[in-house]
Amino acid sequence: MLTYTLRRLLLAIPTLLFIALVIFLVLELSPGDPMAEIPLSIPPEVKERMREALGLGQPWYTRFGLWLYQFFVVEPSYWIDAAFGTDLAQGAQRIISFQSRSPVFDIIAERIPQTLWVVGMSYVVGVLLALPIGIYSARYQYSWFDQLGTFISMIGFSVPTFFTGVLLIVIFSVNLGWFPSIYDTTLVVNDWSSFGQQLRQMVMPVFVLALYNAAQISRFMRASMLDNLGQDYVRTARAKGMRERVVVLSHVLRNSMIPVVTVIALGVPQVFGGAIITEQVFKVNGLGQLLILAIHGNDIPMVMTLTFIFAVLIVVFNLIADILYGVLDPRIRYD
After folding, report:
1. For burial by CB atoms within 10 Å, which of 59, 103, 274, 326 has the most?
2. Has residue 234 got a pLDDT over 80?
3. What is the largest CA-CA distance in the chain?
């Protein structure tokens, strides 16, 4: 397993470099100019000096190499300096946002807590709800619980999140006044009262995203359980007199989790990517909204950094899913 993991990590290096190059070239060839929002009253020579200050006057391969150096060398050096008080970075230029002229990773660090509070919590809630629902629906196929779960799952998976979010705002914010319609990103949780306010403003966006995630994962869980419940090893276990609870939870569940692990693992990077539509509906100042603002403003360093981070997370969690295959199924070997 260790050899396989190291081999996959080494293979991930050229893969990520190729992904970074593709992302950079797509942004380079896309229409738009970071100087487009500059007032027309600014003289052309001043605008040209501003372009040079942003590094836009250099060839694309020079800018791409500089970004790689800043991402893999300069930024980690700054993190080490901040953690241990060293001086590895020595004033090196960090990745700077075109819009705010602030370090990109500092802006991302400010947005991550909001994303984890809402999108991360909704994913955890969705998984915790989906797994038992899928297991119980498969165990009692065509029961009233299975029919109800299928109906709710189809609604949750089919209805877009922006419609569900607006519907909840109209019912619970406008008509009933139970929950705030706008997420307050400036709220600081320092006592029980502020913690209660945080929970109240999280209820609706978390419910919207949890419903969507649970609908998808529960269907995968149910289908995988039904596929394994009809296998020969299940009939053999029952014929040996094993209790149904032991058969389902000890034998069927472990094998059924193999395809579901892929769905759950590949969904984790979406947490850091944020739920763009839902964040817009509830005004959550997270990474998804940050990416949209960066795209609108032609903020190439921000878009490049965020999309590459999402690509890294996808590669990493793909590896985690493959490793979990071997843990769940002893027949899988990576020698």
Report:
1. 274
2. no
3. 86
